[in-house]
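Inputs:
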Amino acid sequence: MRLSARNKINATITGITRGEATANVELDAAGTRLVASITVEAAAELGLTEGMQVIAVVKASDVMVAVPD
Amino acid sequence: MRLSARNKINATITGITRGEATANVELDAAGTRLVASITVEAAAELGLTEGMQVIAVVKASDVMVAVPD
Amino acid sequence: MRLSARNKINATITGITRGEATANVELDAAGTRLVASITVEAAAELGLTEGMQVIAVVKASDVMVAVPD
Amino acid sequence: MRLSARNKINATITGITRGEATANVELDAAGTRLVASITVEAAAELGLTEGMQVIAVVKASDVMVAVPD
Amino acid sequence: MRLSARNKINATITGITRGEATANVELDAAGTRLVASITVEAAAELGLTEGMQVIAVVKASDVMVAVPD
Amino acid sequence: MRLSARNKINATITGITRGEATANVELDAAGTRLVASITVEAAAELGLTEGMQVIAVVKASDVMVAVPD
């Protein structure tokens, strides 16, 4: 499956915080910490575990740009 | 200003495609290409230009996780 | 690639409106009209054309629920 | 109230998973399974229950397009 | 139609910038300037014009919190 | 840090509902109730508490427009 989303960042899972509905997946992308909030269902279905190599995927319209002061 | 968004990725602007309403800002983040679709107004107000050091900011609920086949 | 996004809807492309930065892709999903606003770059890279069979993909946190009056 | 969101999909609620803050509402849309992650407050206020006819609403900028391999 | 989205802000349209695909609708909400990027199709269908009273609608998962320095 | 997000609304925190992964932050913006769903991690890191003055931040592409009937 090829996807229109423009942002695909290779990362390693460093931790998962699971609630009843939502799981926060913590990722390390070459030294940058990322967090993905997904459904607990998706985390289970994909078999996400610490140390796993994954891809953080973000639609271009969800990316903001900040300029440091 | 400290922001709740969990994902802050240092990047360099490598190109900007401007339409009437939307600008696609292309970024290089340590070798990973990113694209941010923002308003042309925001691109102008921030003075975005090629070569500028910026931060790509993404809310955790906008990050998906993909597992390679 | 397996993706955490929970919503995957089979659809046929019925039209594409291209601006400089954004393309609105109109879809027919078993009689329901859908619209996806993506970058023109993604539309070109995926070779999107009318009549093509695609999948509309939406993250669960981007779906609202409405109750008819 | 008429809404700018372009995607309105008729569906039936097939299940609800409630956490403290978020509820995942599972939907059946003519055989396609959908999931909406909304606040538990919204689920309660709308009186969402299994079997209820609702509309899944998605903004066009939140829809991605995937092309099967 | 009752909607799960938690944020509904009364506003007046103060300007519209139309591209081919996207329209940026500028709003005044009791002195606070807001901008909504929607499809040009939606802007036309809703008959949006300057001076019109509308409601800015935002899903709770799309709202960030910032703390001033 | 200057941010591309177009919508910045001054507000006071009126309540916080914390789950394991997500916190719903209730806000009062000059009489309009807002809700922000953010990670519990962000709520803790920013030290969010009732009565605090904050800014609700929303990307323009996440704002819909509704027209009352």
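The radius of gyration of chain A is 13 Å. Flag for discussion at group meeting.
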